[in-house]
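Example 255, ligand guanosine-5'-monophosphate.
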Amino acid sequence: IELENQLAQAIANDQLTLHYQPIYELSGKRVIGCEALVRWIHPKLGFISPADFIPIAEKSSLILELGQWVYQTACQQLQRWDLDAQLPNLNMSINMSPKQFDDESFFTMVPQLLRRLSLDPARISLELTETAILEHTERNQKLLATIKQSGMRIYLDDFGTGYSSIAHLATTPIDAIKIDKTFVDKACIYERDNRLLVSILAMAKHLELDVVAEGIETPDQLNLLISNGCALGQGYLLARPMPADEFADLVRSQG
Ligand code: G
Ligand code: G
Ligand code: MN
Ligand code: NA
């Protein structure tokens, strides 16, 4: 409860910030966008990982406030990169907690904000986990349809780590899958896992889904992904999550 109260204040007092991890077109090694990742700089405790405070936020309606804050901040940043920094049209990937599906107001706020900022909705992707779409309620299906109608894109995050993921590919309007880091890691160690990754990439291609590989840390992993047709990826080998200004410098430096 203590930390929960402090998180509520943190949202109000600007202690949260977003870092942006570049997402690359792998074969040409060019940045085509980024994933927004929230960070909490606590005045006394210092850096607190989202892995620690997102679960706390999810226990209450704080996650709704946090989710709205992240969304607004990320979209405003994208507009600033367009206008002030004159960066090429980049894409922005935003993580969504399953709980945010409870927040009807989010789904009316989102298209309004994009219109106000003159941002093409197709540049925004919402990263949903399987848990979010696992509940195949009519309501969730309707919300997913609403997202699609708005023009935004739906990415299935942490693909393969959840439950009955393949069924979801057929029944939900997903644009892309994000291949979880565990697959990328194991594919360069074990033959079976190697084949599994190759098969996932082939399946995605047949389904005309985009693929973003996550957690690329070694040149071997990168080469394996490229040679099997994985177009997009992110990971420490390429770039870590970074503050907005650093990200702008990085994109500018690639000309
Ligand atoms: O960046 P990092 O590896 O520390 O993130 C840890 C976890 O927190 C990841 O699972 C990531 O998806 C999640 N996370 C980071 N930022 C956000 C956010 O803005 N919203 C939600 N719901 N989760 C986030
Ligand atoms: O749950 P989600 O996939 O959104 O979480 C992504 C998390 O992975 C972020 O917290 C990000 O900081 C982290 N991350 C990104 N690239 C790498 C990487 O190459 N290695 C590791 N260990 N973590 C990474
Ligand atoms: Mn993610
Ligand atoms: Na992920």
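Summary: The CA atoms of residues 140 and 240 lie 33 Å apart.
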